[in-house]
What we know:
By secondary structure, the protein is mainly α. It has a domain at about 110-230: Cytochrome Bc1 Complex, Chain D, domain 2 (Orthogonal Bundle), CATH 1.10.760.10. It contains ten helices and two strands. The chain has helices at about 40-55, 65-70, 100-110, 110-115, 135-150, 160-165, 175-180, 185-190, 205-225, 230-240; strands spanning about 20, 30-35. A two-stranded antiparallel sheet has the order 1-2. It is flat. It starts with 17 loop residues before the first strand and ends with a helix.
Amino acid sequence: xxxxxxxxxxxxxxxxxxxxxxxxxxxxxxxxxxxxxxxxxxxxxxxxxxxxxxxxxxxxxxxxxxxxxxxxxxxxxxxxxxxxxxxxxxxxxxxxxxxxxxxxxxxxxxxxxxxxxxxxxxxxxxxxxxxxxxxxxxxxxxxxxxxxxxxxxxxxxxxxxxxxxxxxxxxxxxxxxxxxxxxxxxxxxxxxxxxxxxxxxxxxxxxxxxxxxxxxxxxxxxxxxxxxxxxxxxxxxxxxxxx
Length: 243
């Protein structure tokens, strides 16, 4: 015959509390623990659920940055896993660089393309890539995606992001000072960063950086060229637009 449920209505006669005795085999010493019945038990369970739901950290939460926060060795950090306690390791003996011999020869011959510095150790004066319409179009595309956020689409330093910068505004890339920079210097600034500007080496490949430099030169030329230097048909069109 089925016994009474804990959730059934109470009888008129008082019922003893439900008792659970722990035996010595369970780690207890035969001490009885008293449990509430019916509505009392429901009230206790409800209270516990409210408490646990309001306590941050008691319930598992999705960790969206677990790869960033996971345990890992940092540069120059001690690592007891190795005999010398150093996290940074030397390449295994007998291994070779990933680049092929031909690639290394190309990099040595085209050091200016990779670094912005020529064989004489000086920053190159001009873009070491053929200036084509495709290169300028690629530069425009990369400039408007990566650079215009701060420097503005025209390179004049006017943008919504720049308007909210309080510590220091992005420079006007059309100013005479920046126009006097060599192509290699602009390339290296994009590569390494400068001041508050971070490095964009990971965002822009070397070829894309040179494309941006070429496009910036086009922007500077467009803004700084004098009317007398324009061809006659373009000079007349510019004079009409300036009137």
